[in-house]
Each structure stands twice: as C-alpha cells, then as structure tokens.
Amino acid sequence: MADTQKTFATVLGIVLLVVGLAGFVSGGLGIVREGFFGTNAAQDVLHIIGGLLGIWFGTKGAGSGYNLTIGWIGIVLAVLGFIPGIKEMLMTYLNVNTNISVLHAVIGVVALLVYYKAER
Q1: What angle do CA 115, 117, 120 make, to 5 degrees?
Q2: Which of 9, 55, 111, 119 could hold 63 in an S-S bridge, CB 3.0 to 4.6 Å?
Q3: Is the pTM of this model over 0.85?
C-alpha cells in the first residue's frame, strides 16, 4: 500500500504526458483538439510539464507531494472553469471547456483521495 502514492503519481504523469503529446500529433488525434475535450498548444504544453513532473516525482518516491499539489490544482481549475468571466478567459487562452472542468474536478478529487487515504 505504501507504493500507492508513487504509482498514482507515475500513472497520472504518464497519462498527462500522452495527452499533451497527442495534442501535437495530427491535430490531437481527433480526441484532444476538437473532440470531447478540446485543447490547444498552451494546454498541451502544461499537460506535458505536469506529466513529466508526475513521472519524476513518482519514480523518486515523492508521489504524495505531487498528488496533493495536482489534486488542489485540479480542484481550483474546476471551480474556476464554472465562474462566469473566468470561464470565458480559460476558454480563450487554454481552450478549457465544461467537459475539461468536470474532468479536472474528478482528477482533483481522486488525487486528493489518494493523498489523504493511501499510506504515505
């Protein structure tokens, strides 16, 4: 159970890295750029950075700190994604739509559950 923190951080890091890289391949493979979850180059770069950090912290045994941080980032982004004015700004600059805001909330909650419930 002690490996749950680093495993979650590493797996989430890999997923974020793949999603970020997919955004640059053939217009996001039809899923990332113009599909259910729309992204743009800026968001893809942020996913790549977040993914690399998750892989690095996860493999170095510091996954719990990553899980706490990425969890709160997800929650904050989700909340901001539903506030009028800020929602439009996120859509303009990062192409964050409602689907992505919901996904950020889910990832944030799961990451925080892992942080607070799994052995550290």
Answers
A1: 60
A2: 9
A3: yes
Domain boundaries, the chain: 4-117
User: Residues 51, 15: contact at Cβ < 8 Å?
Assistant: yes
Long-range contacts of 27-36 (CB under 8 A, 24+ apart): 36/99
Instruction: State pLDDT tens for residues 23-64.
Output: 887 665 555 555 566 778 888 899 999 999 999 999 999 999
Percent of the chain with pLDDT over 70: 88
Length of the chain equals: 120
Distances in Å between the alpha carbon of 56 and those of 14, 52, 90, 117, 120?
10, 6, 27, 22, 17
